[in-house]
Amino acid sequence: ERARSRHAYLEAESLYSQALPLLPESDDRHRMVAWRGRGLMRYRVSRYDAIDDLALAREAARRLGDAQAEVEIVLDESTAFDWTDEYRKSRALVGEAEALARPLAAGRVADEHAARLIEARVLLGQGRAMWRFSERKEALEKLTAAVALAERLGDDGYETLVVSLLLLGDLLPWYNETRRAELAFERVIALCEDHGDRVHVAVALLNRRQIWIAHRDLDRAIDDTRQCIQIARELGLATTTFMGSYNLGEMFYQAGDPVAAWPHVNRAVELENRRFSGVGRPVARLLQTRVMAFEGNHEGARLWVTEIRSHQERLAGGGATDGLLMPSEDVLLTMVDLFTRDATDEEWSALRARAAKYSVEQELIEVADVEARWLARVGRAAEARQKFEEAHRLAERIPNLMAARLRKGLAELPPDTIAPLRAASNG
């Protein structure tokens, strides 16, 4: 427990593992603590068997009739599934925890402090799930409430406060609240450094790129992400290394520089193929497909569209939800599909409607940009110019790194169709 409190996760995991064989089979109380502790350590270092440990801990809590411990462990399971990007399972467990916690909220448990901590964790879980499923306004409300409650709970509320601030900092720039996001990141990094919590420092650096994207500052977004990857490598955090590599590749791609993107995209694909990504969905291969299409490798992109789509259909046909693309990701896959074949205007119109509902961050601009390039490729240059102008209008209100890419796309149209875009601050 002391190793865990120092955020020495590898050391704590080893000690929990050594403790378990020494505990009698009948000692559900201490075995529950050990299984739960080891599960908490394992998901932080991207081990899938964390879920197994937490399931054993939950079974022990049930045998003990410890309703409070069970709710806490269900929330732990939800967080572990979120770390492995199994967002649907994570959300379902938050709902289960909320139902289990109602008696606690009604005051039928003696430990009011513990009940308030569970309430804060449920708010965090709800906000996190809403954030994952593009319900941004609702996510802001839940996360703001989680911060307000967690900061009154002292050290017990530390991690709930930190994670809530991390998610708020990631979300606020998309509501033009960049200064509030900056303050959230300043606070969370200071909290993590005070607690020796380098894992969450790395996550803060990973998420802080959103501020620099809001400022149209690619260089600082890249710098923060490189620092995140360095910490992740030092700590052996495979999932964080993957996410950093993925984000570098995506940012260079969004900025219109596929040459700079490829080393990072390839690294992310390598980690995904070796199952070190912590993500059950083919997100790196989808990014690879997007970059191929942008470069003009339509044949290669179509092969990957077919491969990913076939994999998704097999999963859905078997009734599985693990590994299915999120709605926003499926929009991007469909975008590449339409771009690399003879699509119809009706198909693009349907995609725009889906993008308006599900797309996150810069993706709405990307969809407009790619449709403009498709229009140009099929000889409809005047319509392509209008679509580039639409993309630019989106870029004026959505934080992004895409201005140079948009201007270059417009400049490549026949001269008599060009209407110059206004200069934008992200070059």
Protein described:
Helix 17 packs parallel to helix 19 (363-377). This protein has helices spanning 2-5, 9-19, 28-44, 50-64, 67-83, 87-105, 112-132, 136-150, 158-171, 178-194, 198-214, 218-235, 238-254, 258-273, 283-295, 298-317, 327-339, 345-358, 363-377, 381-397, 403-411. The termini are far apart. It is elongated. The protein has 427 residues and is mainly α. Helix content is 75%, strand content 0%. The model is unreliable at 422-427 (pLDDT under 50). It has 21 helices and no strands.
Keywords:
elongated; 0% strand; 21 helices; 427 residues
Provide a concise account of the structure shown.
This protein is mostly helical and about 425 residues long.
The dominant shape is elongated
Strand content: under 5%
Mean pLDDT rating: 90
> Which series of helices and strands comes N to C?
HHHHHHHHHHHHHHHHHHHHH
Which residues form runs of ≥5 with pLDDT under 50? 422-427
Structural class, judged by helices and strands? mainly alpha
**How many angstroms does the end-to-end distance come to?**
50 Å
Largest sheet: none
The total count of helices amounts to 21
Task: Compute the number of strand runs.
Answer: 0
Q: Radius of gyration in whole Å, from Cα?
A: 23 Å
Helical proportion? Answer: over 70%
Summarize the topology.
Blueprint: H1 2-5, H2 9-19, H3 28-44, H4 50-64, H5 67-83, H6 87-105, H7 112-132, H8 136-150, H9 158-171, H10 178-194, H11 198-214, H12 218-235, H13 238-254, H14 258-273, H15 283-295, H16 298-317, H17 327-339, H18 345-358, H19 363-377, H20 381-397, H21 403-411
